[in-house]
């Protein structure tokens, strides 16, 4: 499905020229800039970036005279006319490089994310197609980007399609555009496409390097551990480093070098595994007390994409007292996982396999596998990441179970050191005793459950008496639970949408979690309630309450804390003691 693209790790640690800033754009709802009136490719499309050659020359577009959008950024919040827009927007920027920059070696265009489908054109030539709105990718420009000024055009299309991930429906905003950073990356002729280190469950430090452009020795130095050695392909180091722990992160400075290529990274080492119904980090049974989060800015309802965004959001997570964050429902910006590394917060990273996936379609599986590889190869050196999640809220069926089992198997091939899971949907029942028997449980390491007792179904009064188990003998984590409230809307505990109602619901859920914890003989090993902050969702339309936002946040879309924040914070203080 993807053509002309590659993955490159550790881009933030490389020589780059930022292409962020103002780009000229053309909104193209009928895609006339690429498809002609007869349905074939329009060879004179917008990607040519033509100018009239003489007074009588007819060119029916003009990037120079067109409006601009800021990159990185979604178009939905930059122009009110594009608030609900789904379709193609053409981005154009003039790129100037010097002879000295060209002489560096190889040049790649690196795109942090382009939601959902994108094509890259340089000087009118089509170079690549990429399908996946949350994954980074790179396109080689070596030999094409000579000294001088060039026309770089990107076609970005955020239309939902049924045979890819995500599909036609989701409970988040379908942001469009170049929503993360765009850079030119300069590397030598022979360079390290991937260089990674992590710790296996048995305590071995393992890693790998992938060279592009030739073969060469790779030197690996970790000064704090007295490591100075030569490595190749996949390897193992005979060391016993001080461990990275939740709440006490230890990061080691790692230096990779190969001929003229050099990369410096900060890497932590920790083990994660399961023992019966327990989750074990560094040999210690660890109760995951966390929160879920969407990739939206602390205020303004935009797509998050900076270090400051990550710092503020994860700062709130720490103020809550959490040791765990679920980065839902797609790959988040790299700054988020690196900030989790620095702060010592365990993380769950997820694919956008969500409602309505065409599990019987090979193209959907191919697209999911491509996005899974992009997710894992970028973040497998991050000690914070302990889960790869292959799905959220998918209805059981043979096709679905086969699809997700294939993804779980693929994840283990790419990275055998982390836990595999998927958030399972639980359906309403009158029973107080819940036994999870979803066949997907056989393919994952941890049974993750989304349940909304007291909100979408069930009585709040009976929640503390509810029990949870599975037929699989594996840890259970509540990846979603909770209910909605409009910040500042007050009333009694029986009045829906009030902060008091939400707080009472959290108190009842917490009592249930306490009774079901593994430390009390149950099978529940953690929770990440839904959700840290209110987020945009076009399916949430109740006037005066939702107004296009999912209101299940512990804080509002502008960061105002609701009463439930303190309820959960108080429990997490108790858990940490």
Layout: helices, strands, pairs:
Layout: E1 15-18, E2 21-28, E3 68-71, E4 88-97, H1 99-102, E5 106-111, E6 117-122, E7 125-131, E8 137-140, E9 148-157, E10 182-187, E11 191-199, E12 205-212, E13 218-222, E14 227-231, E15 234-237, E16 252-258, E17 261-267, E18 272-275, E19 278-281, E20 284-285, E21 288-293, H2 307-320, E22 324-327, H3 334-343, E23 346-350, H4 362-379, E24 385-392, H5 398-414, E25 419-425, E26 433-436, E27 446-450, E28 467-470, E29 476-480, H6 499-516, E30 524-527, E31 535-536, E32 549-550, H7 563-576
Parallel strand pairs: 21-22, 21-30, 22-23, 23-24, 24-25, 25-27, 26-28, 27-29, 29-30
Antiparallel strand pairs: 1-10, 2-3, 2-4, 4-9, 5-8, 5-10, 6-7, 6-9, 11-12, 12-15, 13-14, 13-16, 16-17, 18-19, 19-20, 31-32
Can you characterise this structure?
The protein is α/β, with parallel strands linked by helices and 577 residues long. It is built from 7 helices and 32 strands. It has helices at residues 99-102, 307-320, 334-343, 362-379, 398-414, 499-516, 563-576; strands at 15-18, 21-28, 68-71, 88-97, 106-111, 117-122, 125-131, 137-140, 148-157, 182-187, 191-199, 205-212, 218-222, 227-231, 234-237, 252-258, 261-267, 272-275, 278-281, 284-285, 288-293, 324-327, 346-350, 385-392, 419-425, 433-436, 446-450, 467-470, 476-480, 524-527, 535-536, 549-550. The strands form 8 sheets. It has an 8-stranded parallel beta barrel. Helix 2 packs across helix 3, helix 4 (362-379) runs parallel beside helix 5 (398-414) and helix 6 (499-516) packs parallel to helix 7. It is globular and about 80 Å long.
